[in-house]
Amino acid sequence: MAEVKIISIGDSLGVVLSEEMLAKLHAQQGDKIYVREMPNGIELIAANSEFAKQMDIGKEIMRRDAEVLKGLAK
Predict the structure, then answer these.
(1) Angle value at C-alpha 70, between 65 and 74, nearest 5 degrees
(2) Which residues of 27-48 are buried (b: 16+ CB within 10 A; e: fewer)?
(3) Banded model confidence at residue 27, pLDDT cuts 50, 70, 90
């Protein structure tokens, strides 16, 4: 586990990722990453076209079948 510090970036807040962390994410400056909420915290995922495509499909299914999914959740 690595420790990062929350810093001010303009009117926002952010964290600085080390070169080692970026290498593990296969990411570099300017890349997008996804932040996913997990039971014990958050997970950072490097954005890639396949993952983005899967997320878009999932969002479309949730939008299209919202009522069915609500019924299944009961």
Answers:
(1) 145
(2) beeeeeeeeeeeeeeeeeeeee
(3) confident
- Prediction pTM value: 0.55
Q: What are phi and psi of 15, to 5 degrees?
A: -125, 150
- Within 13 Å and on the Cβ side, how many CA atoms surround 10? 1
Q: Is it the case that residue 69 has pLDDT exceeding 70?
A: yes
Average pLDDT for residues 10-31, to the nearest whole number?
90
Q: Is 1 helix (H, G, I), strand (E, B) or coil?
A: coil
Domain-wise residue ranges, the chain? 6-73
